[in-house]
Write a structure and sequence with these properties.
By secondary structure, the chain is α+β, with helices and mostly antiparallel strands. The chain contains 13 helices and 14 strands. It holds the Pfam family Transferase.
Amino acid sequence: MFGIHAFHPPSPPAAALEAGLARALAEYREWAGRLHAEAATGRRGILLNDAGARLVEAAAADGATLASVMPPQPTPEVRRLHPSGGDGAGELMLVQVTRFACGSLVVGHAMHHAVGDGFAISRFLVAWGQATRGVAIDPVPVHDRTSFFAPRDPPRVEFEHRGAEFKVPREKRKDDDARRSIGGGAGSGGDEVVVRHVRFSREFISELKSRASASSGAPRPYSTAQCLAAHLWRCVTRARGLGGGGGGRRATALHLAVNGRARMSRPPVPEAYTGNLVLWAHPATTARDLLAGALGRAAELVRAAAARVDDAYFRSFIDFASSGAVEEEGLVPPLADPEAAALGADVAVYCLLRVPFYDVDFGGGRQFFYTPGYYPAEGVVYILPPAPLGDGSVEAHVSLFSRAMETFEACCLSIEHHEALLDQ
């Protein structure tokens, strides 16, 4: 996971940041370890060898200020503010600290999801800030995996996890050619993937939620996350041109990250758990039905699919992942397939609304700006946490082929325009 965190002055000296990082790593040893596979079984894990993380300090050239180098829209230039991890680095955490003439400090990171999810990453960064300030690390990290994730005896694999959490690498699905010829993919004629951020105002979100609830008749209102995910799913599908003709019959799915800390109950997993506890919900329909139906229908698909990823589902996943089938069959997560040039008709949403990145403070006050690193992966959406002193707006980062982005931007920020396009 790539991230960029910006802080106003004053900023701590390099020695304090380095000492704080060392202290935080002593409490979060996974981030100082290395990926390891057992020779006998092939089972992967993290070797707690305290090999360390990589910390690089940089200074902006020619007296540049932060405002002068942060573009209004994401561009490849943003990559200069965080490590790439593309040099074969064995470290599970790479950090770059960049100082600017205005006194601002930017902390950019590349942190491996094999160690932790967005919540775990944010907890570590908060702990690093606490250690740099010389205060106690709170909450105390919870490393215990055995108590919370022990497989049942006998195991009960009650759900199908092949094709959901795992697939055979390099497996060619029957619809691969269709995926790549409709709405983008490897057959998109070399069209460039671009990243845009869109900002939804408090008023827009309120109207979106009101329309979703009114159109579905659901007894409970939909959340901000559910409504934004549904709206973005529909807008991306419309921008890809999948609403009519043969494209309307295409299946489309929304891959939505679900945090198990809020789902597992037997026993419950603490918020301070340090690992990766994300599985995926997969609401699906046809492109035509998604666009012809009301927003509330899409929001209900999102809510119902996320609700199915409950304690029973997580326990079934643990039993399956512990059965040896993953290693024996060489299964990998679907989104880790290196041959997948694009998501085709699907959309992947990482909702970070409740991830406490804005609690990070190295001594000069909490960060004033957060953004993911520049990651142009077609069909991938990040819904970002709102700034604590902001106006209630929410930003999303969206990656699409450039030819689809203009249509997406036109319909995304206007509910009326979006509905008008659907009627065409």
